[in-house]
TrEMBL record:
Alphabetic keyword roster: Cell membrane, Membrane, Transmembrane, Transmembrane helix, Transport
Bilayer topology: Multi-pass membrane protein
Lineage: Bacteria, Bacillati, Bacillota, Bacilli, Bacillales
A family per Pfam: BPD_transp_1
Residue ranges of the TM segments: 12-32, 69-96, 108-129, 141-161, 181-206, 242-260
Main localisation: membrane
Biological process according to GO: transmembrane transport
Family: Belongs to the binding-protein-dependent transport system permease family.
Matches recorded under InterPro entries: MetI-like, MetI-like_sf
Domain ABC transmembrane type-1, first and last residues per copy: 70-260
Subcellular location: Cell membrane
Annotated protein name in UniProt: Carbohydrate ABC transporter permease
Amino acid sequence: MLKEKKLSSTLASIVLWGYSLFTALVLLYMVYNSFRSKSDLLSNTFGKPRGLSLKTYGVMFKEQHFHMFFFNSVFILVASLAIIVLFSSMVAYALGRFKFRLNGTMQIYFLLGLMFPAQLGVLPVFLLMKSMHLLNSPWSVIWILSAGISMPVLLLTVFFAKMPSEIYESALLDGASEWKIFYRIMFPLASPVIFSICIIMSVQIWNQFFMPLIFLQSEEKKTVPLIVMKYTGNLMLSMDKALVASVLATVPILLLFIIFSEKILDGVASGAVKG
């Protein structure tokens, strides 16, 4: 039995390492080719490059205004994260701190939220945003993405529920209100979980394609994933720009995830295991 477990563990490690290596090689190949000219890519795709330069990167920022789309994505990301952290932490504090009749039902409600993507309700949401005059506004995408608080609420609920009751009691004895206990004591203590939530949600929000496609019609309002699609739609005409756009869309968020991977694991573990 022990041998079988060790063998399955070894096989799983080999598969995961193989997949990771393949992904890293693809990413490195994409970054490497982004420094080549279009003519070189088309005529000598797998051969030795005639030269490497940052010319296409300059074109993307000077002529294609990629920085504008990058800022749009950053604005949607930061605003969505702020709303998600604010609302999910308050909801989770109430669910983890207080015991009431519908406590379990509310947790099941948020658990079900993980199973149904927002795309299922896109038509009524579209009509709602239209009635609020938010179509073609980044705020339509921000409010929709901010509604996805199921995972943050579940992680933070477990964290707040397993906090020692002595912390609450001593704060109450010192005259602190529930609101003060939340934002002066509990919220700072939950910072590892909140940090992990921010990084995990950042990847989802940054790579969001469907909602910006539906709600952002103007060219100047579009986000990075939409611009990547614009260039990849006709690779023969814009292969160099497609590679640069893909690198600029992938590398920043990937580096962020890699740099803080340990903190992400610690935070998820803190919010996923009851003590």
